[in-house]
Amino acid sequence: MATTFSSLPIVDLSILSSPSPSSHSLQDLSRKLSDVFTTTGFAYLTNAPLSFSHGQVFALAGDFFRLDTAEKLSVAKRTFIRRNKNNYRGYFPTQPDQLDNLKEGFEIGSVQAPRQRELVGRHQQQLNLTEPNVWPDEYAFPAGREQLETLHQELQFLSTTLLSLLAIALGKPSDHFASYLTNSLSTLRLLHYPPQPTIRQTTTATEPKLCCTPHTDSGLLTLLHQDPSGGLEVLNAKEQWVAAPYVPGSIVVNIGISWRTGSSSRTDGMGRFSVPFFFEPGEECVVRSVDGGEGIVYGEYVRRKMDTWVEYQDVPESRADAGAHRGVVLEVC
């Protein structure tokens, strides 16, 4: 993969809004996507066929994070509030002791939760990746549930379309990867990065203060709504961090680790929102390279990776409550 890029390409998806796009147009789009994912691994998608504007997406995020602390903690993961039953879906507060993960978030899965796998023996202690979504009180978050469920469905459909186009570019039938999506675990995540104290500049150059550690995404694709404050950076093959500034109306797409990409990303924005959608296969899906070979069971892979995620480390409730209080500041620096 040639990834010595200095900027991200832009791919126009307007053809997908056509009621009857020509096969030539779809072939052309599939080639463009294939080129993106075999070179940079990242791109801006414009004119995506979604019914939500950027403003509406971030209004939804703002409505959730403006909820009072008690309401947000009522849907917090059990890591933070022991009396709650949800472990995988729900809210997580900022964590004051994790200075490179200064974010709070809320996660939902499919409207119809995938079929739950029965856990037996040693697996009974594992997180249930197919648990149902949890929601704030409807009076506190009016219409929020319905709109977020619709956004999840639309992003799942868009991601499925992109996957079909990639299959075509690989010389495969458009439904080649359809089996991957049985009981898909795709996650829609609302994120808020509260403003941080200004760092006094010195004569010694310093690294940006990170609100999210450098990482690669799991899953197949990630579709990211980032707000105008930007902050996203992408690592190329020369170990150079390339800025991916906000492009109005665009969605940043990148291939996940399931495609074995060599790129990674980090965020150093402050006082901002982002809304990533993680397009994921089913828990029992065996992800293999197109030309065969040994694969990985996606659920097992995700659980191994989750061991490194701060949202799943044990946190005393007093610290979780303090983190939630820190996270209610919504001004953008």
TrEMBL record:
GO MF, one example: metal ion binding
Domain Fe2OG dioxygenase: 183-281
Gene Ontology terms: biological process: small molecule biosynthetic process
SUPFAM superfamilies the UniProt entry points to: Clavaminate synthase-like (SSF51197)
The protein, known as: Fe2OG dioxygenase domain-containing protein
Domain of life where this protein originates: Eukaryota
Protein keywords: Iron, Metal-binding, Oxidoreductase
Keyword match Amino-acid biosynthesis: no
A matching Pfam family: DIOX_N
Coiled-coil stretches noted in the UniProt entry, renumbered to this chain: none
InterPro entries, per database record: DIOX_N, IPNS-like_FE2OG_OXY, IPNS-like_sf, Oxoglu/Fe-dep_dioxygenase_dom
Family: Belongs to the iron/ascorbate-dependent oxidoreductase family.
